[in-house]
Amino acid sequence: MTVARLIRLLPKRAPIWSSSSSPMRLFSSSDLAGVGDDDDEDAPLYSTPAAASSAVLLPTLLQPRVVVFDGVCHLCHGGVKWVIKADKHRKIKFCCLQSETAEPYLRLCGLDREDVLRRFLFVEGPGLYHQGSTAALKVLSYLPLPYSALSALLVIPTPLREIVYDHVAKRRYDWFGKSEDCLVLKEKELLERFIDREELVSRGGSDFSKF
Predict the structure, then answer these.
(1) Cα torsion for 59, 65, 70, 73, to the nearest 10°?
(2) pTM for the full model?
(3) What is the pLDDT of residue 166?
(4) Burial class (CB in 10 A: 0-12, 13-18, 19+), 24
(5) What local confidence, expressed as pLDDT, does residue 122 receive?
């Protein structure tokens, strides 16, 4: 079976979800060399904007229970460290908003980077995502007791919770500081929980604060 024919058998809209912790694989144009002339524009090739001219995602492998957060924010990084320590069953995975790996998750949820800078994103599964205080409480629900009990705070009306969340989020850089690089690069023992770890390591010298 040719690669082109295999591609056509894949769903055109829904990305494939994987329970694996391995990051998505990018296929370069050389990987697709030799594909027959029967290719057409209907083949669902998923690509990131930055890599569209040279690489194709075949297909995009998205994982459930992924937190997409501001990787240069000291407060956010501290929260991620706390969750990693509490998450003894390793249910939650992470992705820095500043990485290209975050793009498929943003597109899936119809969000842009500015949206997630305002309120972090928790992609719970296909068609199910949360932001802000709701995302935080949903993450807590996956942790062992006693932490999961805090998810009971979901009974508080969302607008009230978001007032508190937004107040802190808007001032987090002033109160807690901001780094020029994703902070996880300074604590690489945490990287095994990040789906974008390979990208982060390869771009370790980049200035992520420009995103």
Answers:
(1) -150
(2) 0.69
(3) 96
(4) buried
(5) 96
112: which residues sit within 8 A by CB, 6+ positions away? 106
The two tokens of residue 51 are: 């890599």
The tokens for 48 are 């990131």
Q: Report the alpha-carbon distance of residue 113 to residue 97 in Å, rounded.
A: 7
CB 195 within 8 A of CB 95: yes
Averaged pLDDT in 10-residue chunks for the chain of 211 residues = 45 47 36 38 35 38 91 94 94 94 92 94 91 96 95 95 96 93 86 90 60 43
**Quick one: which of 208, 114, 211 has its CA closest to 170?**
114
CA–centroid distance for 103 within its chain? 8
- Alpha-carbon distance of 80 to 77, in angstroms, equals 5
